[in-house]
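Entry:
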Amino acid sequence: MCDRLLPRPVASNGGWLCLLLPTALATSYLHTNKECSNLDAVHQLLIVAAFGMCLETLWFLLNSIVKDVPCIGLMKYLLKSVIITTIWFILLPKTSWISLIVVGFIVPHFYQHIYIRVLRGLPKTFTYGEAAILVQGLLLFVLNAICRLALELSSNPTTDFGQLNRIMQSALMLLLLVCTLLAVVPPLRQPLPCYVLLLLLVAAVTCAPVTQPLPLIALLQFLVSDQKRLFIIGFYLLLVALTCATVHWQLRSTQQATTRIRKIFHLLIVLVFVPGLVHQCALLYIATGISFAIFVVLELLRLLQMPPFAATLSQAFDSFRDAKDAGQLALTPFCLLIGCSLPIWLTPCPCGLITSGQNPQLLLLLSGILAVGVGDTAASVLGSKFGRNKWQNSARSVEGTLAFVASVLLCVLLLEVSGILAMSQAKWFATIFAALNASLVEAFTDQVDNLVLPLVFYIIVGLAS
């Protein structure tokens, strides 16, 4: 089956990546606070489903290496059944067998079909491991949204974060429905039907009765109810203007964007996430969902060649294209946003528990920013300028790796000195260990590091702190 697929060229299969999201979910379960205890069962279901999908990927890759082995299919299902059932009875001993079959077997089987369709439909875009993370994340989001909306449908959220979470989940589910319709109904890919569909999407997102008051009113009330929040929004709009100005300036140039120019977006995303996590966590959470939705819509317009935006979007993609953007999809900008947002999306109630003006989970939530926004940026910029000693079998330099570690630790130290982060000896040990491991992964991996490094950093910090 793998012979007929076209993964991203000049890269290893990245099979080990399929382990990252299940391990990160299990790690995040260790940090569930009391305010999220009512969602424990949903989180446990997600862990079981994630490990089931991971096993499907591992068997898929094993099948491509070990062929013509008698009874390999039977061995696969026996081993998978033992592992999934063991995890299930450890996490959910009192839950029904029907739930086990649905979550542990049907969902992973469904995942396998989508996984293969993605690899076939977007040739040369992903490695096997990168596709595994993204399809796992998609199905886990759908499963999470269905479970949580079903559990909370009869009650209105009592907190700002609860309302925003419901709005974001329903909006992204509707966006997924639109993407599915565009994929399976070719006539909708014409300009008029496509724009009508997008307008219906906006109307449904803003007016669907998922909250009281309606989402648009609830969101506006949330935005204007806090003066500090308005300042943060103004700051975000300034950063959006700077981003647009950077893109416009680059498009006027005839040269391809250099690595240093692309790292400007890494610095801008640091300026978005750090103030948001420290001062307006719920605002940042909904902003990540809105940004992701905008990215998806713009990419749809580009891929479907929708006038009048397609030409400009294609020019921007060609100008900022990275070596890893070998397929049709603009992979690296998506992965930059996803990688920085994953710690917030994975952590149960990321904005729920604030003590003495500080979020005890802040270091965990900063994993993506520290790994990609700070460490990877320093390694790339300083390594390209001062790097003289290359690692064996790698294009990355030892100096860049040292810059990765030093920049992350310096950033954490500054946050501690400024009173933003409360660091214990255990947290410092975890941070140092995570920075060292993430820097080595950055030096040697040929996978999309915007996606990989945040998960590696998150897992180590989560396990050790």
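The CA atoms of residues 416 and 444 lie 30 Å apart.
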